[in-house]
Amino acid sequence: MSRRGVEASRLDGELLLAKALDLRRIDLFMDPDRPLNAVELAVFKGLLLRRAAREPVAHLLGVREFWGLELLSSADALIPRPESELLVEAVLGCFSDRQQPVQIFEPCVGSGAVSCALMREYPAACGVGGDLSLAALAVAARNLQRIGCAGRMGLFAGDLDGCLASEVRFDVIVVNPPYIPRWEMADLQPEVRDWEPRLALDGGLDGLEILRRLPGLVQTRLRSEGVAAIEVGHDQGERVAGMFRSSGFAEVSILNDYHRIPRVVLIRNPVIP
After folding, report:
1. Contact in structure between 186 and 133 (CB atoms under 8 Å)
2. Residues 35-60: pLDDT tens digits?
3. Cα-trace Rg, the chain
4. Residues sharing a CB contact under 8 Å with residue 160, sequence separation 6 or more, in sequence order
5. What residue ranges in 109-217 does DSSP mark as E strands?
6. Is the overall model pTM greater than 0.90, yes or no?
7. pLDDT at 155 over 60
8. Does 74 have pLDDT greater than 90?
9. Which residues are bridge partners to 128 per DSSP?
């Protein structure tokens, strides 16, 4: 697979072998000399061929770990990334009491990974998530069911907050919108460009198409002592923070991810008109 440009090909091979044998990866090292029968070998070869065609490992395994949760993954929704865990960390840093009945809103909910993590961290929380993609919403619903939180999170098909009553406000808003500039789409890794939903990636000509709409959404939907955490592209932090500051938000900060890349714009305590 390395000849096909696949990074971490050894790790991928081990994960796919464990999948073919219905084992954990660690079990492979406990019995390294175990032979494969004909069926197992055929399944393993099929998985390797698909990976060599640059199909993401998360799709082949059908699951992806996020915030310690094993969540379902498919081509219908964006694969959860470690960088998006910073959204969860940002909220936890603002609402330290895990027993608070916080109300959460996640537009562009995708697979539901961020909301699933927050629902697990705040057992008294409830919330709403929306997405334009019915297929992504189905993945989110299954993930919420998988972790036992389906009854606390409503889902709707729609553009940002368009389906919500005008008076509804939340303590927490988390957003991982599409933010990749359209001109960069062709240069993405094949695993992303060819296998993940374009709707979840394409942020318009400059990548800011949805991000420009978020100051208005946060002003309308966030409670006065609430917090909004928004994931942004590697070079968008200052521009997006500037949008919020010029819209009248005073407490705006930028959080770096584990690679010291500006990744999350954090807004706290908005002034409610």
Report:
1. no
2. 888 998 999 999 999 999 999 999 99
3. 20
4. 107, 108, 130, 210, 213, 217
5. 126-131, 153-157, 170-175
6. yes
7. yes
8. yes
9. 105, 154
Interatomic CA distance for residues 183 and 179, integer angstroms: 12
Given 3-state DSSP classes, what are the helix, strand and coil percentages for the chain, each rounded to the nearest 5? 40, 20, 40
Higher-confidence position of 13 and 220: 220
Helices and strands (H, E) in the chain, number of each type? 10, 9
Q: Which of 141, 79, 136, 82 is nearest to 116 (CA)?
A: 141
Pairing of the two strands 153-157 and 170-175? unpaired
Sorted by where each starts, the structural domains of the chain and their CATH numbers stand as 2-53 (no CATH), 75-268 (3.40.50.150)
